[in-house]
Amino acid sequence: MKQPTGVKLAYLLAVLNAAIIGLSFLFTKIALEFSSPMDTLAFRFAASFLVMSVPVAFGWVKLSYRGKPVYKLLLLSSMYPLGFFTLQVFGLQHATSAEGGILYAFTPVVTLIIAALFLKEATTLLQKLSVFLSVFGVVFIFMMKGSSINLTNMAGIVMLFLTCVAFAGYSVLARLLARQFTPSEISYVMMATGFVVFFGISLISHTADGTLGTLFIPLKSGTFTVAVLYLGVISSLATTLASTYILSRMEASRMSVFSNLATIVSIAAGALFLGEQIAWYHWTGSALIIAGVLGANRFGRGSAGGSPIQSEVQAVPPLKSGQP
Questions:
Q1: Contacts of 302 (CB under 8 A, 6+ apart)
Q2: What is the pTM assigned to this prediction?
């Protein structure tokens, strides 16, 4: 069956999102050489909020929250970005980045379960097997690199697993809210919430430590500024706009499995920019991930396009800056 144009765009954006997120690991590494994790988050969401505020202020992007349940957007923001990044930052203080990568790979599985419970999304046996194949591909790469989950880091492991739950909850709730809000309306509240909370925490922390004067020192580095702009404008704002559109056209369980493609992009970026070696297990794991993503979207019920939410969703308003 021929797929509608909107569904084809959703698939294209899902792949593009994975590529952007995969590269974000590289830019995060760069940013953390100049700033602390919380300060990096503060600048990241300051950039995303300020950039999106420009087209809003000039009227290029129309927002209308009158008569709409804005409190649901605040609940959404509590899951992502607030819950996700807060749990990730503190989780990585008690666990390794490899453990974080392994646990994050289970996000599609958690999303599949939550989507089935709250959205009544039905998946076939082949879809479920494909999702697990994709997850296994990521875990296989980490395990072959000698990584594993150390259960003595239980606090960190629990928090990192909760990042999966937070992102899965965001995917499910965002699909529901796409019936009432445009992608721009959803994204603007999320970026604003991230900016207010993370920058507020950073200011309070520096004030308490007497180091407020050092907060903006990293911005003197052009490298840090470029990294933060990528993380804020492209990796946060653009992907949030795109994800909201994708979820209006595709089931949450379908979209989530694309996240594992970010592992492949991260491997490629490490090889190209950091000189990291690509071993046979990288190729094998990548093949399993791709096969799982294709299978999860090929073996669904009904049409390959899923069940788009069309009647109540407005098209993505044009953006002059930060448009996916």
A1: none
A2: 0.82
Kindly state the tokens that stand for 192: 């604003």
- What confidence category does residue 233 fall into, taking pLDDT thresholds of 50, 70 and 90? very high
For residue 166, give both structure tokens: 């937070």
Collapsing DSSP to helix, strand or coil, 218 comes out as helix
Closest to 268 (Cα-Cα) out of 240, 296, 289: 289
Contact 187, 63 (CB under 8 A): no
Structure-token pair, residue 64: 């209308």
Per the listing, tokens 């209006």 go with: 248
The answer to whether the CB of 15 falls within 8 A of the CB of 261 is yes
Contacts by 178-182 with C-beta closer than 8 Å and gap 24+?
Answer: 178/244, 178/247, 178/248, 178/309, 178/312, 178/313, 179/309, 179/312, 179/313, 180/68, 180/69, 180/72, 180/312, 181/68, 181/73, 182/63, 182/313, 182/314, 182/316, 182/317
pLDDT of 168 reads 93
Closest CA to 167 of 87, 248, 51, 284: 87
Least confident of 83-87, 231-235, 294-298, 318-322: 318-322
Backbone CA torsion sign across 118, 123, 129, 134: negative
Q: How many CA atoms lie less than 13 Å away from 138 in the CB half-sphere?
A: 30
Residue corresponding to tokens 């009544």? 120
Q: Output the six-digit token pair for 210.
A: 């007497």
What length is written for the chain? 324
Q: In this structure, what token pair is assigned to residue 273? A: 């920019």
* Phi and psi angles of residue 57, each rounded to the nearest 5 degrees, phi first: -65, -35
**Alpha helix positions (H), 33-106:** 37-57, 70-77, 84-94, 97-104
pLDDT band at 153 (very low <50, low <70, confident <90, very high): confident
